[in-house]
Amino acid sequence: MNPFVAYSIPIQGLKTGIHRFKFVLDSTFFSNFEESPIITACSLQYAVQLDKRPDMLLFDFEMEGYVNAECDRCTADIELPLDAQRQLIVKYGDDEGETEDEVVFIHQDASVFNLAPYLYEFAVLSLPITNTYDCQSDEHPPCNFEVLDFLRNDTTPNAATIWDALQGKIE
Questions:
Q1: Distance between CA atoms of 109 and 96, rounded to whole angstroms?
Q2: Which of 25, 26, 67, 103 is 20 to 30 A off residue 32, Cα-Cα?
Q3: pTM to 2 decimals?
């Protein structure tokens, strides 16, 4: 059975106008993508608004939630908050599956549109470059204080001493 059936929108039977859908993604959803070692544990909520028009579909995605990650600052396991908004334009045409300038084309007779690849893509694209957040405002921050204390101490050797040794000034 296709694990992404729950993320298919029956566009053929929908009337023209605004329609709203909600999706909750967790680690089970991401485990169905072979290339997804990036997100292993998470809780993401999507609010999707579909504006169905006679010639196109306009999807507005609002995502919020968290992914489990390792903090780049202190190596503690954290729930990294995510919050993003995206838009997807789907037009009817003969080139089904083609994309052009952020526009996806589907056949005029398509009965469903599966959002799963776009939910996945938008989640991955919303991941920050560094896995850190303002944890100081948390009542009980998840920080690894041993690592933070180690980083605060100046444990690097004196740079001048190294250069002196390389230049033969220190025996």
A1: 10
A2: 103
A3: 0.79
